[in-house]
Specification:
The structure is a single chain. This protein has two domains: 162 residues, Chitinase A, domain 3; 137 residues, Roll (Chitinase A, domain 3). The two termini are 18 Å apart. Strands 1, 4, 5, 6, 7, 8 and 9 form a seven-stranded antiparallel β-sheet that branches. Strands 13, 14, 15, 16, 17 and 18 form a six-stranded antiparallel β-sheet that branches. Strand 5 and strand 6 form a beta hairpin. By secondary structure, the chain is mainly beta. The protein is built from four helices and 18 strands.
Length: 316
């Protein structure tokens, strides 16, 4: 889910242990008034706020160093987020309970520039703490969360899952039509482009999952966090109802029921990173489904087709 979805909901290089001042060129010594954060990467943190005034400027601290690839400029960053107020330790946003990390677009138009400092140049698997006044620790142009005064202070804990190119895909299979064979649609995927459904085949009566490209990475297990590039179509419609190619780029999902759209839970488990999947999901798969806990919905009373590129996974 995009950070902008959270903004809408709420508003309607550093080494391990280094503390950095981020605001207006002001430099200060390492402060004592930094919250204590406990817990393992991938688990909702426990945050204890000291009985001290909050720092006047935005500050960041790497709490644990990951061992994955380093995020870089031009990528989007998929990350779990726990956001709360310093004042009263009031929770504001929590992707851990939603089971869906957020995709942070670091272009100055979706989140505050302080997020760039917290998330760029970080190894995947790192936990980073940021403390900042609400006026420049949340949204662009001084946007604070709803019902939060600009002078109040945010405590944000990031668990960095990874950085990804906005149009990243798995290693290329054939650019010609894949799938087809009468029982599932045929799809064409060109490098860096959104997939196209070229023929539809027969509407599904049961879940069908076909591997179009077989990856050689780690296998996906129940409870893992996966990072995917995906598009979805109502049966027979040329235009997708949702596509990460048209939004921010890859999304993260927790592989559990109710945290992914119908059919994904069954199809993703046991697949490998680097794979491309074609799913045909009948309307009867989960007729009561409306949205995931993270807010991803699908058209109602419709058979659905997905093309999913599995880019990454991280155990929780």
């Amino acid at each position: 889910m995009l950070v902008t979805m959270y903004v809408s909901a709420l508003v309607r290089s550093a080494a391990l242990g280094l503390i950095v001042t981020l605001a207006v060129g002001c430099v200060s010594s390492a402060p004592e008034n930094i919250p204590q954060v406990r817990g393992e990467f991938g688990r909702r943190p426990t945050v204890t706020v000291p009985d001290l005034p909050p720092p006047e400027d935005a500050r960041m601290k790497v709490l644990s160093q990951g061992d994955g690839p380093v995020t870089r400029e031009g990528q989007v960053v998929v990350t779990d987020v726990d956001m709360r107020l310093w004042e009263g330790n009031k929770p504001l946003m929590d992707t851990y309970r939603l089971g869906q990390p957020t995709t942070a677009v670091l272009d100055g138009r979706h989140v505050a520039r302080t997020w760039d400092q917290a998330l760029l140049g970080r190894s995947a698997g790192s936990r980073v703490l940021m403390v900042a006044p609400a006026s420049y620790g949340f949204g662009p142009n001084g946007m604070a969360p709803a019902q939060v005064a600009p002078g109040e202070h945010l405590i944000v804990t990031f668990d960095v899952i990874g950085g990804y190119d906005p149009r990243q895909q798995v290693a290329e299979g054939s650019p010609e039509d894949m799938g087809g064979r009468g029982t599932v649609p045929a799809v064409r995927v060109k490098p860096g482009k959104e997939p196209e459904i070229t023929t539809w085949g027969q509407a599904p009566r049961q879940l069908r999952a076909r591997t179009l490209v077989s990856g050689k990475g780690a296998s996906i297990a129940e409870g893992d966090t996966v990072v995917v590039q995906w598009s979805g179509w109502s049966w027979g419609n040329k235009e997708p109802f949702a596509s990460t190619y048209r939004r921010s780029g890859p999304n993260g999902f927790l592989v559990k029921k109710q945290t992914v759209p119908p059919g994904w839970h069954e199809a993703l488990k046991g697949r490998t990173v680097g794979s491309r999947l074609l799913l045909a999901v009948p309307k009867s798969q989960d007729p009561s489904f409306t949205t995931t806990k993270g807010g991803v919905g699908v058209p109602q009373d419709a058979d659905i087709v997905y093309v999913i590129d599995i880019l990454d996974r991280r155990a929780r």
